[in-house]
Known about the structure:
Layout: H1 3-18, E1 23-24, E2 30-32, H2 33-40, E3 50-53, E4 57-61, H3 66-76, E5 81-90, E6 102-111, H4 116-131, E7 136-142, H5 143-151, H6 157-165, H7 170-180, H8 188-195, H9 212-227, H10 233-244, E8 246-248, H11 249-262, H12 267-282, E9 291-293, E10 307-313, E11 323-327, H13 329-335, E12 343-348, H14 350-358
Parallel strand pairs: 1-5, 7-9
Antiparallel strand pairs: 2-4, 3-4, 5-6, 6-12, 7-10, 8-9, 10-11, 11-12
Helix pairs in contact: 4-12, 5-10, 6-7, 11-12
Amino acid sequence: MSTGAARDRAMMLRDGFAGQGAEVIDCAILQPAETLLDLYGEDIRARAYVTQDPARGERMLRPDFTVPVVQMHMAEGAEPARYTYAGEVFRRQEDHPERASEYLQVGFEVFDRADPEAADAEVFVAIRDALGALPVRAVTGDIGVLTAAVAGLDTSEARRAALMRHIWRPKRFRALLARYAGKTPVPEGRAALLAAADPMAGAGPLIGLRSREEIAARIETLRADAAEPPIAKSEIEMIDELLSVAETCPFALEHLKHIAMDFPVLRDAVARFERRCDALSARGVDVDALMFEASYGRTSMEYYDGFVFGFGAEARPDLPPVASGGRYDALTARLGAGRSIPAVGGVIRPDLTLMLECGV
């Protein structure tokens, strides 16, 4: 597929969103690495291209548009606001070397506090309509249901925080959950360390950047965690059942309501899901046929904290999503210097739309 054709398609898609009232914006290709590292930690280095600028410090090639768009809006944007953009993004593909590491992305973002579920439906429908008759299948999810479950666990704040950090890393999340439930044994080295009256006695010279005080504090943190009782079996089973939900929206809603009868911490998140279904239906979406998967979106960028969706090529499961998006309210709070606003957006890969049109 020619670069020129993909760029022409990107401009067409962007202009279509502009025709719906979105302001056309652009963001620098080189972004400050500090912001992204602060948000995602060192893990972002495995997914982004990092470079060093003698005058500006560490920079990253833009891995997506959402973070710079949020920064721009929180610094100077009016409310409510709708934005659209088109340009290259850059992501390392070590796990999928056959995929492009540089490609065009077109987006539509909505910042509006009036009715978040209506905004979710607006973005979903805008992306769906932009894809037209392409042979794609939509899947939705809601990270907010899982975060509500984790926030309501009867365990220490430190354990809840650790699980929250790893919601977007399913294998690590599952390993932590098993450890906190007492299903995995404590490693021998850690058990010996915690059993010692003075673990620092007889320690050799310090190697690395941590001070003796920091190491001692870490040992006390491990001791406090070891003293915590296991997470209740019923709560583990609740999360397992929650993550297994994969049905059309009406059946998923009834399933989640059933779980919430025994775990009231889920009720607000389930109510938001129900309002979103009503908002989607009001915009002409066949909600009865729309899939909902409670675990969907957990391997995407970590800023999604509510509604998530994707459109995948039905005949090409090997391809990344043709379009995807979600809600990122918490990101606006983190980048807003004390202010926040509900926000949701979606992106399209114009190169993939052309591939599907040509039957490639």
